[in-house]
Amino acid sequence: MADLQNVREPRNREMKILILGLARTGTSSLTAALQQLGYSPYDWPDRCMLGHLPRWTEGLQAKYLNRGRPLEADEMDQLTSDFDAIIDTPCCLLVDELIVTYPTAKIILNYRDPHRWLKSMQDTVFAVARWPSWRILAYTDPRYAGAIVQHHITLWDEIWGGDEGERCREMFVEHYNYVRKVVPPRQLLEYQVQDGWGPLCRFLEVEEPKEPFPVVHTGTQFMRTAVRGWWDCVGRSIRNAGAVAACAWILAYGLFWNLSHESSCRVD
After folding, report:
1. Distance of alpha carbon 42 from alpha carbon 78, whole angstroms
2. How far is CA 212 from the centre of its chain?
3. DSSP 104-115
4. DSSP letter at 9?
5. Side-chain-side CA neighbours of residue 69 (13 Å)
6. pLDDT by residue (tens digit) across 25-49?
């Protein structure tokens, strides 16, 4: 471990918190709460907008499917250097790697009732993933839509078996039991966002805000965000298609000009 740390570039921020609960367990509300407390969480939107998602997906593939390059400690540092907390999928599935890389970080296991979690996933994440248009957008907007589609296929279809029912709920329970097994109790806070500021602030040893605990990304809010994200992908696809069409026109014009020029030269 010491040798590994010696070759790593210094971080811009010390990694203070690892949040290892799965998506749809209050991650967006917890992110907002941590920001309010002065932290800078590395969340799902950050990975998407910064173009990091494909690398984390490849890290999952290397660990669970034996293909691609593993995500090593020094690269994790490069990706998360501007943040001091890590939250949400796919990062939370690399439990062992994160714990080894950041041994002094406090760990929060955000959870909810497994049956309610599954129902939330079916109504939001899985429902959105079934929109047929994603297959087209994955090709026309590869940087964003393509990365999201590949991540969903890797995690929910290949690693978790593609089941959106009982098997998925069992995998949820297995993940939480594994975190409880490998993390020392003194370093772990099991937490539901309904618990509010008290347990969270005591665990982090920070002052409790006077403002209400944030409630973000309910099922309805999630679907509205998903629709906006879909339209963003459509907009990028249109711009990409326009760029391709422009390039095709330029190439066709250039080819026509070259052929015409060669013909005139032969006539002369």
Report:
1. 12
2. 27
3. TSEEEEE---HH
4. P
5. 7
6. 999 999 999 999 999 999 999 999 9
CA–CA separation, 215 and 30 (whole Å): 8
pTM above 0.70, yes or no: yes
| Opening angle at CA 179, ends 176 and 185, nearest 5 | 115
- Main-chain dihedrals φ then ψ at residue 106, nearest 5 degrees: -80, 150
Q: How far apart are CA 165 and CA 121, in angstroms?
A: 10
| Whether residue 159 has pLDDT greater than 90 | yes
Say how far residue 263 (Cα) sits from the centre of its chain. Answer: 56
Secondary structure of residue 161 in the 3-state scheme:
coil
Dig out the tokens for 117 from the structure: 């979690």
Domains of the chain: 17-131+162-216 (3.40.50.300)
Q: Which residue has tokens 């026109």?
A: 249
How many other CB atoms sit within 10 Å of the CB of residue 97?
A: 17
The secondary structure element, H or E, covering residue 41 is strand 41-42
Contact predicate 221/138, CB 8 Å? no
